[in-house]
Amino acid sequence: MTQAPNFKRTIFACYRGYITQGIVNNLSPLFFVIFQDHFGIDYILISALILCNFVTQVITDALAVRYVDRMGMRRAAVLAHVLAFLGLAMQGILPNILPAPYIGLVIATVINGIGGGLIEVIISPIVDSCPGEAKASAMSLLHSFYCWGQVGVVLITTLLLRVIGEDLWYVIPLLWSLIPFYNLFSFLKVPLMPAIPENEKTPLKTLFCSKIFLVAMLLMLCAGASELAMCQWSSLFAERALGVTKVMGDLMGPCLFAVLMGIGRTIFGIWGEKINLAHALMATAALCVLCYIGAGLFDSAILSLISCALCGLSVSLMWPGTFSLVSAVYPKGGTAMFGVLAILGDVGCSTGPALFGAVSTAVANSPRVLAQSAFLPDQLGLKAGMLFSVIFPLCIIVGVALITRFAKKEKI
Questions:
Q1: Which pTM was predicted?
Q2: Mean pLDDT across the stretch 399-412?
Q3: Residues 358, 225: one domain?
Q4: pLDDT of 259-296, one tens digit each?
Q5: For 372-394, what is each residue's pLDDT tens digit?
Q6: Measured between alpha carbons, how far is 228 from 258 in angstroms, rounded to an integer?
Q7: Residue 55: which CATH number?
């Protein structure tokens, strides 16, 4: 008698895959000051590294939509982890051996970006395809491991830098590279569900003609914007607008934000099958609205910081919840469907912080607005950026309501 495949090993490999993505996306920024001090890299070149990572991931997402199904999920998963391993290893090695250290960082960033982009596209559909009824819970729990990867890489890297010193920083990427190195062998062996036959897949043309999918694309855009606008600006906001120290700003800003986002996804991952997903999405989006308003309007620095941190909990369900909503309507959408949604999410991750910054700069440089305010330019600008960002979770509330309405009309 043939033993049934153990898909728990597959799920655990996927969890490690999302931890890998958390490492790939969040390790490099922790070394930016070191890159400046050791290699003389200025802010413009550092900004170019951030843009390089984003562009690489979006291009990878777009190519994955077309080619991953032809490659096969196992090969794609193994390739993603090989590239993540090589990218992290190169980050520690190339800047120290190449005549131009910045070129080494660019190469490592591109390799990491391809690996991270592939992980983003393929891991969610692998988990979604595994046998089980609580798909939304499984998706939320999966995405919580990105948060735990982010928290872990910040705390452990900070500790290691204190223990071994900044001169030995290059050892740290080599140590982190061991996680994708181990996981690539996992994906060589774990069971995977058979691919959906080509003639049974929901074509992209059908998806793009669907009102539900078009609204879901907007939800992904706003999910990425809601998450990253706060995550990327909260530390600076705490320091400049609220007057707290950088250490306090980092701990109460991006670090606690990531912790609460992970807790929110874990809670829904455990008990989500008992919760209506659409209602939960609307409730968390409403909380996100309150968090942005609180951060922008509270006079108390403590209350503003609490609002920034709670925003992590409020955005926790947006990205995996949208995946689950669409997957429930189009269970045979395949990798292409998840890839398109990932592209929109990544675009939101870029445009959200960019719009926040644009609004903040415009308000801070407006003599007419400043003349009517008691705040300093930086304070007023950053508070205006917070209040402007309310538009992203508001769009999610409207979008979920529309999807629910369309699904009822189509009796889905």
A1: 0.85
A2: 85
A3: yes
A4: 999 999 999 988 888 889 999 999 999 999 999 999 99
A5: 665 677 788 888 999 999 999 99
A6: 11
A7: 1.20.1250.20
Longest CA–CA separation in the chain, Å: 81
Residue 376 structural domain? 196-412
Q: Are residues 209 and 248 in the same domain?
A: yes
In a shared domain, residues 177 and 229: no
